[in-house]
Design a protein that fits this description.
Length: 520
């Protein structure tokens, strides 16, 4: 018989309903570690993903879930009672103190190494595009990158023409090679910006120009913008003139004709790339969650964490972002930092984002969203502890600033907000070839790279089959290793061009750049 509820950690004093449960239901939680089997009769109806008390809880007592506090009780709570926003409050504040334990880090690393030994010995092969800088692309597309919002529509018009001219109007991956589509990454910035904001725009767009999923790039400028071509080239650095072309629209009487000429040249160049065999470890993986619910940390994020562990064991580069959704779970990550300098960078990452909130006169714990709460997430600690499950148990090997590109193997923490479009763009700019995106509420959003939507629950996977790529609720009824391997196999198919992610099929691909300054 299927489980109807789960106690995630033996120390937990709440359990999570895995399906809608009625008042009076007797729920038995199996023994685990030092926790004995326990049966609780529900005092009220409990919705899937929501929590109920395993024992009487006193006002002011910490509520333990995932083995960590997710808040404190604001009133006495009886066993079997719904535990949610009406009787819990956050424990978070705008500051925190953190400690580093070398012994804890070594113990965590040893446990991870033992659990993932098989993946170091058996690395799957994929078919990818090998680039001159040593990176690989999961796609061979031509990207059109406007330097300023004023030329967005020109860029889109050029992409539409090129897809009709060279791709029969239907961009899609190939199992062999050649150009797989033309895409314009429009945005509203590039002018009326100053200081760090202007630099951020240039840096992120330069990262997109350098991205290995692009076999060729057309950079489109108006000509008089702040982020003009001479300024932009300071962030771009060295580039291949065959791969990257520039169009200043104010310089031509017919900029569309000139753009078509440049795209024709880029198509001829990029058409020469063919897929080649490479280890899965050469692929860069990004991890994200959006529209989370109470099942996220139990199914989809936990499953992504197992994939993350497998790929980091292969020596792949994997990144976890959404810093505000680490608040309340940051010590868990800090306990896995490979050394003290990495721990200190992680502390700075966390405190830097808290400082961003307070500088704008906002509290750092104004989260979760209404949709999160409806799905069973109560506090930011609750959300964060579920969110960081995507990082698995791998050592934290690196910390990246916003706009930096990932270089080191292993799990890296990437500076960025929780906002879905900004954070998926952030991971793309950092070099992700593919993004695993868990969701409990559903979202059609996609990044410039394949964005694999992983449902936390079966009803969502069935209802939104046109959005969802993988149903992680399988982990509740099937062997977790089998489900992990099935997702790894799907990743290999998508990376190799044998399949498309649903966001690619739907044409749902876009970018957003982080902004933190005035507009002139």
């Amino acid at each position: 018989m299927d489980k109807i509820a789960i106690r995630i950690n033996a120390a937990d004093i709440v359990a999570v309903a895995l399906q809608n449960l009625c008042k009076g239901t007797a729920v038995t939680l199996e023994a685990q570690d030092n926790a004995k089997e326990i049966t609780v009769e529900l005092a009220e109806d409990i919705t899937q993903g929501h929590k109920f008390a395993l024992r009487d809880i006193k006002k002011g007592e910490h509520i333990i879930k995932y083995g960590y506090p997710i808040g404190e009780a604001t009133e006495d709570i009886k066993a079997g009672t719904h535990v949610h926003t009406h009787n819990i409050r956050t424990l978070l504040s705008d500051s925190g103190e953190y400690t580093y334990s070398e012994e804890a880090a070594k113990t965590a690393a040893q446990s991870w190494q033992e659990a993932t030994r098989a993946f170091r010995e058996n690395v799957p092969s994929v078919r990818v595009y090998k680039r001159q800088d040593g990176r690989v692309g999961s796609r061979n597309e031509i990207w059109i990158v406007p330097l300023v919002g004023c030329v967005n529509k020109i860029s889109e018009k050029l992409a539409l023409w090129a897809n009709a001219q060279f791709c029969a109007g239907e961009p899609k991956p190939s199992i062999d090679g050649g150009v797989e589509g033309f895409f314009a990454w429009t945005h509203p910035y590039g002018c009326s910006q100053m200081g760090a904001d202007k630099e951020t725009t240039a840096r992120v767009l330069a990262d997109l120009v350098k991205h290995p999923n692009a076999g060729g790039v057309l950079v489109v400028s108006l000509g008089c913008e702040e982020n003009n071509i001479p300024y932009f080239k300071q962030f771009l650095g060295e580039y291949d003139e065959n791969r990257v072309k520039f169009l200043v629209t104010q310089d031509f009487s017919d900029e569309i004709a000139e753009g078509r000429k440049l795209l024709t040249e880029l198509n001829a160049y990029a058409s020469g790339f063919k897929r080649e065999d490479a280890p899965l470890s050469s692929v860069v993986l990004g991890m994200k969650c959006g529209g989370s619910d109470g099942m996220s940390g139990i199914t989809a994020n936990a499953l992504i964490g197992r994939v993350s562990d497998a790929m980091t064991a292969m020596n792949a580069r994997v990144m976890l972002t959404e810093v505000p959704e680490m608040f309340g779970a940051e010590q868990m990550l800090m306990n896995r930092c490979v050394d003290k300098p990495t721990f200190e960078k992680t502390v700075n990452l966390i405190n830097g984002f808290k400082g961003y909130y307070t500088a704008h006169h906002q509290v750092c714990y104004e989260n979760p969203s209404p949709g999160n709460k409806a799905g069973g997430i109560t506090t930011l600690e609750d959300k964060s502890l579920g969110c960081v499950q995507k990082g698995g148990k791998a050592p934290v090997a690196g910390v990246l600033k916003y706009g930096e590109r990932i270089e080191s193997a292993g799990l890296s923490l990437l500076e960025g907000p929780g906002n879905d479009i900004v954070s998926t763009t952030d991971m793309t700019a950092a070099g992700a070839n593919i993004i695993l995106f868990s969701t409990g509420r559903g979202t059609p959003l996609g990044a410039p790279v394949p964005t694999v939507k992983i449902a936390t629950n079966r009803p969502l996977a069935q209802k939104k089959s046109l959005w969802i790529d993988f149903d992680a609720s399988r982990i509740l009824t099937e062997k977790s290793d089998d489900v992990r391997d099935a997702l790894l196999s799907q990743i290999c198919d998508i990376v190799s061009g044998r399949a498309q992610s649903k966001n690619e099929q739907n044409g749902y691909r876009e970018i957003a750049i982080f902004k933190d300054g005035v507009t002139l």
